Amino acid sequence: MVSPRPSLALALRHRLPLVASYGLVLLAVAIIGLPLLWMVLGSVKTNREIYTLPPPWLPAELRWQNFVEAWNAAPFDRFYLNTIITTLAGVGLELVNAVLTAYALAFLRFPKKNLVFVLLLAALMIPTQVTILPNYLTLSNVFGQSWINTYQGIVLPGAATAFGAFLLRQSFLGLPREVLDAAKVDGCGHLRLLWDVVLPMARPVLVTFGLISLVAKWNDYLWPLIVTNQDVMRTLTVGLTYLFDAEGNTDWGPIMAASIFVIVPLLVVYVWAQKYIIEGITAGATKG
Amino acid sequence: MPDDDHSAASAVARVRGVDEGALMLGGRTAALERQPLPRSVARPRVRSPRFWQSEWFLFLLFVTPNLLLFGVFSYWPMIQNAYLSLVRWNMIAPTKSWVGLANYAYLAGDRTFRLVIQNSLVFTLGAVGGSLVLGLATALLLNQKLRGRDAARAVLFAPTLLSGAAIGIVWVYVFDPRFGLLARFLGFINIPSPDWLGDPAWALPAVIIVYVWKNVGFATVIYLAGLQAIPRDLYEAARVDGAGVWWRFRSVTLPMLSPITFFLVVTALLNSFQAFDIIRVMTSGGPVDATNTLIYYVYQQGFIAFNAGRAAAGAMVLFVIMFAITLFQLRVGEERVHYG
Hints:
The complex is a heterodimer. By secondary structure, chain A is mainly α.
């Protein structure tokens, strides 16, 4: 630098991109955040405030009554129970299937292993949406019984996983060889090897896959919509939209409150497990 | 059935899974399997005399539950769906009447279905293009030394994880032409708000906006990880060669990101063809089919009109499109894309 004191113009020119960057980041965050803020504000406004022109940004006072009204407008206690049961069962089954298949593919000898790979690949290529109609028919008559409006009906079609099997297999193969060999030398059978050695070491990827599965199950919409037709068996997402269909765009306060019922549990999980989720997803995409 | 398909995470699922599967088919075998160790040091390896104690048996035991579920809820429905596409059936009558390819012929000649295909293409182009371009832009922005960068990334990513059904409802309120958030902003600059969801010309752009809003954070996060993996000296070399900002972007950043772009394109394509909850909640395919896409059409024909044949034929079209995208990903992906 020739001049010991940079001129104002130079300083500005140097600073401007940085200022602009901060401005643009703020803009992006605002675009993503404002609709959610609008939801939160709407959930505590009175109907009169919501229907004032122009609508005020902030409510005069917080109307928590909207949450009470939303809770009473539909059996949200049942919706929560149903979603929690089907999510936990679905995640649990997916994890078990993923672990067992991955272990078999990684560590067990079998002559027709390639056939299993092909079958799993085929499963990956069949989108859920193409199977909804036949699956509905299958579940409406399971050995003479209807599984429509049942937990098993909601859970079972999504209980298998090819992605999980591939993801876990990959990480099982990356485990340190020496530890596995040592365990084998010690006479460790496959069940103990899986339970005492592989699973504890693979914990991070299990958590990541569990979280991905959890988010998918909690938010699942199309299948629960199709396989339930009674209020008491609906999940949160489906129950919310039926309430919305019924009350429509007239009662925004309680409707926004009800949307918060659905969103908040996952936001809590996100805040708590953000690192796992983002790292898991980027690792999946950028590795290789 | 694979994972729930409209979450970003499961998109990774689909593509990664396929990808790794392809590698494995190429003959890469497990490390332990390649050099099997004796069970115990003293005893040479002997296959157990009884089948139910053998490793084969354990293998079958481990993979059967997963494959059985796939058999019942993926492979078999696929076959059944192909069959249903060849019959006429109202889902109640005890008999189905065989109509051959009549359902496909109907779809080919139907004006609504042509509109559905057109909507799906427009929606997909808008959704994929929008989330990739904006995702790359925000990733470039966040790839600088800025305070609060991680917090911004966390906020941008959050909508990806939220329920499409709930988000759709929130956006109906945001889009309200008189009392919504957007109308409030447009009021500042004295532009009357369009009747977003009631006007056939605006409804499709509106659902595309919501899709991009919800999914752009996914592209941002993935692109950001990709940007951070580009070696610094490439930029230094380009700078020494006298490349300006734009040229460095063209000659270093974009080519180095191409595998990630490819991954994101495929993921977003597959995901957007399956976007259901947002459309069901916001417009139910309307007004006058302006937002009716393939997946919604399948649902509508099957579970509202009870026309199993047409629903199944529509589902076959959806399947063929998604299958073609996946094949494209497998075939072209590995060769054409520059890997850094």
